[in-house]
Amino acid sequence: KALAKSPSDDAIRLELAKRLYANGRYADAAVHYTALLEKDPDNSFLLGNLTLAKLRLADWENFDALRARFLARLDASDASDRARTPSPYAVTLISADPADCYRAAKARSTSKMPMPRAPERADLTRSQTGKIRIAYVSADFRAHATSYLISELIELHDRSRFEIIGI
Questions:
Q1: CA neighbours closer than 13 Å in the CB half-sphere of residue 95
Q2: Which residue ranges does the record assign to the O-GlcNAc transferase C-terminal domain (predicted)?
Q3: Displacement of CA 143 from its chain's centroid (Å)
Q4: Quick one: pLDDT band at residue 78, thresholds 50, 70, 90?
C-alpha cells in the first residue's frame, strides 16, 4: 500500500523487497531489487540480494554476469556500501571460492568493526631503581584459579632485578 502511494520512494521499495525475500517470495523480491538496481547499479547490497533471489529461483538468465558484478563490488565498494554487503554466509551460496568468501567476511567485519588507530606510544621513563618493570594485568586477582596459578610465577621473580606490579 505504501509503495502504491509513493511509487518513487526507494526506501519503501527496498523494505518491501527485503520483506518479500524474507517471506520466500523471491520472484517478487527480484522484481523490486531489479528496479532499485536500475537507479543504483553498483549497490553491493542490491546486487547480492538479487543474485541470491535468482539463485533461489534457479533463474540462470544473466546470472553469471550479475554474480560477477557482485563479486567485483566486494573490493571496489566504499565503507558504507560494504556495511550493506550480504552476510558472508550468503556469499558462500553465490561463490564457492574461499577467496571470495574471505573478501566478503573482511568487507562485512571492517564495516561493523573498523580497525582501531595505532595506539600512541607511552612515555617510557626509566625506573629510578634501575630495575625492569613488569606488570601483570588481570581481572582475576582475587579468589580465582588464575590468581592461584600465577602466584608462584610472580614470587619467583628476582626482586633485585625486577619491579613487579599486579594490576
A1: 23
A2: 126-164
A3: 37
A4: low
Q: How many angstroms separate the most distant Cα atoms in the chain? A: 81
CA distance 113 to 94: 24
Residue 89 CA: distances (Å) to CA of 57, 60, 63: 18, 21, 19
Provide the residue type at 73 as one letter.
Answer: R
Residue type, 117: R
Single-letter code of the amino acid located at 59: D
Q: 114, 80 in Cβ contact below 8 A?
A: no
Note whether 61 and 88 are within 8 A (CB).
no
CB atoms within 10 A of CB 19: 13
Each domain of the chain, given as residue ranges in start order, spans 2-112, 132-166
Total Cβ atoms within 10 A of residue 156: 7
- Locate 39 and state its grid cell: 537507479
Say whether pTM exceeds 0.70: no
Contact between 62 and 70 under an 8 Å Cβ cutoff? The reply is: no
CATH number of 2-112: 1.25.40.10
pLDDT in tens, 83-125: 567 778 888 888 889 998 888 888 777 777 777 777 788 777 7
